[in-house]
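Box 4.2: Ligand-aware structure prediction
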Amino acid sequence: MPAAAPFSWIRPEPWGIHVVPADCWLDPSRAVDHALVTHGHADHARGGHGRTVATPETLAIMELRYRTGAEDDAGQIPHKAVPVEYGETIRLPGGVDATYIPAGHVLGSAQILLEHAGERVVVTGDYKRRADPTCAPFEVAPCDIFITEATFGLPVFCHPPIEEEMAKLLERLAAHPDRCVLVGAYALGKAQRVIAELRAVGHRQPIYLHGAMEKMCRLYEEHGIDLGELRLVSDHTKEEMRGHVVISPPGALNDRWSRRLPEPVTAMASGWMRVRQRARQRNVELPLVISDHADWGELTRTIEEVDAQENWITHGREDALLRWCQLHQRRARALALVGYEDEDD
Ligand SMILES: [Zn+2]
Ligand SMILES: [Zn+2]
């Protein structure tokens, strides 16, 4: 029998990457029997799978969001959660080994290393290289095929040091002691990172939360991330919130909800705040360029460090990164996966 073609066991399909011998899917955008999930953002982790292999933190996030541990009418729990710690390898059907490696993106986020027939494939999921007090740092994993995200895959994207963005926020806060600074931030990852970074630069004041952020912040705290004193906006008066930071989901920035706040200075924490038009669209007075994704420099440096035979580019602006690979004599192709949005920029 002739040997199988190299890497024929890993196949990109529109709704996810198929690991053929194990018949399982990576971050599938539709419900499948057997899923390997890199992290808890909605465009990677979906409900409805039969079995999900992920880090304990990601499984906890999925349980919170999708009640994956809920019983059905017959009193059974139809979903099987399979936890894998960082550095741990599990054997999948068909002789495929999967190892979960920190991706530095959000709590519990992992790259997945797949090994089969002596071939190594790494799927990054979303990742960044900057330090983040709320999650384990990215690790470079040598491999034959490197499947990388490309959310900020344009040279214009160069995220500033987070200390600069924190200083801007605190300056604005100090300049308006009678107002508050309302920061729009995604509920999973960005909100907790902004809080933890404020604590890291010595901001000890209570931070006020929109009700929609509370459960995820508590989940982070249960996993050992110290967020300091958090208060719910709904439990406090306008007077009490003057001179404080308030965190809400981006959708609440221009919402009626914000009328209960003392003349908020509207801020938003996102990698897209680099694009002025995006800030204007959301009526953001104080754009904070804070991203949980690799910027252009991080993407290209990582491709060099991983030094794979081949790079598969997905999940964002594939074209410029593809071109960069070609210019640097690196084999690359763009994958056409569907269903990835920026919940998590
Ligand atoms: Zn994503
Ligand atoms: Zn993500």
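In the box above, the bound molecule is zinc ion. The chain has two domains: 10-155+293-334, 162-288.
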